[in-house]
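Sample entry (417 residues):
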Amino acid sequence: MRKFLLIFIAASSLLTLVFLFTASTKGRILFASLTCASALALILHHFVSTRKENEQHQLEDHSQAPVQRQFPVDALFDATITSMREGMLVVDRDMRVVASNPVAYRLFGSAPRNVTNQRLTELTRNPAVYQAFLDGLQGIERSGVKVDMVGIERSVFDLCVTPLALGNGNGPSGALGVFVDVTRTEHLELVRQEFLSNVSHELRTPLTSVLAFVETLENGALEDPDSSRRFLAIIRKNASRMHELIDELLELTAIEGGNVRLRAAEVELKPLVDESIAALSAKAEPREITLINDVSAGVKVYADDRRLERMLTNLIDNGIKFNGPKGQVTIRHEPGARDKIIVEDDGDGIPMHHLERLFERFYRVDRARSSDMGGTGLGLAIVKHLALLHGGEVTVTSELEKGTSFTIHLPHAPESN
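Predicted structure, serialized as tokens:
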């Protein structure tokens, strides 16, 4: 290309000298212009061709250069499976573990060295796990396999198994299983089902009674004043029970949902206990149950007075319901690292195996007795969540034939700076 350019320039220069000596001025100018235009076009063509050649060389050099990875593949893979929240297990065709992650070690209760190279049957005897991996080795993908693992606590996992093929045409060479922990989801679903079942039962019972007595009144009982008054009293009682249940459900839902704000301050405890006792004295009198305020004058606790009164009312009411005739319910205070407000009765007591679940919604030790006394099964659950909202807790101790004691633990007022 360079040789051709030199020849062109030499020929153009020679012809230009020849035409400069011609007599025609216009001819000389025209020839010079054509020569310059041709030279400029040739130079531009040369520049473009050279640039394309350079770009082509750069592409070839780049394609031949080794690819620089930002992360080593092995290290990236190890970091990924180690940080997974799900358990991962890979088995070969002989059902031996060839890879796993820390979650899987904990899942099977083994150290890393005790998992790799073990047969799956040595890790677990769970038939659901074994069958899922066996199907994976046969080329069948499994998902949504529910697996129960019983260790210190019962755990539920959703197992998905995928066949692993190396492309040799001999079928899967192994299987990859991923264990997703769904214990909390299962628990919440169980709680939801129990909640719906309990609400339906608690509402159905009084509603059935109301409808039955309304129908009786419609069929002629209205003509009998004594019967009609008795039936209307029963209807009122059941309607009040449904109203109370709905109110307590709404209150408990608001507390659990964080929609209740406390207005905590130092409040005098003794007058608050007196108010709760006065509100419940009508319930205690027919059974001659004595309510005793044993709190010293001047004792102050840090709490929302309205919420604390609700807790005291629920606990005292509970003591009245499950106490014997002529029994007593005592409310007292104990100072310490946290203020303790104790509500104790001298009733029949609660069997030990019931204490753990006593603060659950709708849980009753004696369902028939509680229903007869108008309980909703939500009172103690409300006390528990209100105590937690104060940054404290509520505990219970009981002894058969001697009585039950509930204790509200409240933190002291925060120190001002």
